[in-house]
Amino acid sequence: YISVTGVQTCALPIFNIIKRFEKFKSMPYKNKRDKPTIGFGTTEYVSADGKTRKPVTMQDNIEIPEDLADDYMRNYLNFVVMPSFNNYLKKRNLTANQIDALVSIMYNKGNSAFLNSPIFTAVNKNPNDPNLKNLFLADAAGKDPGILARRQAEWQLYSSRSEEHTSELQSHWY
User: Are 55 and 44 in contact (CB under 8 A)?
Assistant: First the structure.
């Protein structure tokens, strides 16, 4: 992560993992939590400078191309998810891969659900807790197979060494 005018921006691994598991939809739809969503699971339209935020509604009569969905997701990550994440976990000594994995979970679950999750509690106490893998998998228990696959991919990223992705992180900033 790098700071651009004081704002942390998402790197390519987080962007790719979210796009891999969130299906692109060009028009508003309701997600599994019955929340209006568009693009890659984005629940708010957020401007490039983060100053304008508008919730997605089912009455929005628009169809967006995938590149605009990318922009909405990037802006939502930069101005909604990352500031909340930084408020609660910035003092932890987390690797870039750990941050990416946790931000993916936060994007998927929603900020408050993530902040009330056993994963957040464990990471906040000890980012290297040996039980974290079980917590990642338990978070998907009873849910569709896509959530299990996502949590497995997030765990793989969380538990991998940052050095394995250093060149990718440094060369693909958003």
Answer: yes
**Euclidean distance between CA atoms 20 and 150, whole angstroms:** 9
Amino acid at 71: D
3-state helix, strand, coil in the chain (%, to 5): 55, 15, 35
Q: Write out the two tokens for 86.
A: 């930084």
- Give tens-digit pLDDT for 92-134: 778 888 988 999 999 999 889 999 999 999 998 999 999 999 9
Would you say 11 and 169 are in contact if contact means Cβ atoms under 8 Å apart? yes
User: For the whole model, what pTM was predicted?
Assistant: 0.82
Six-digit token string for 52? 């304008």
Torsional class of 63: left (φ above 0), alpha (ψ -120 to 50), beta (otherwise)? beta
Considering only CA atoms, which of 147, 143, 117, 146 is closest in space to residue 132?
Answer: 117
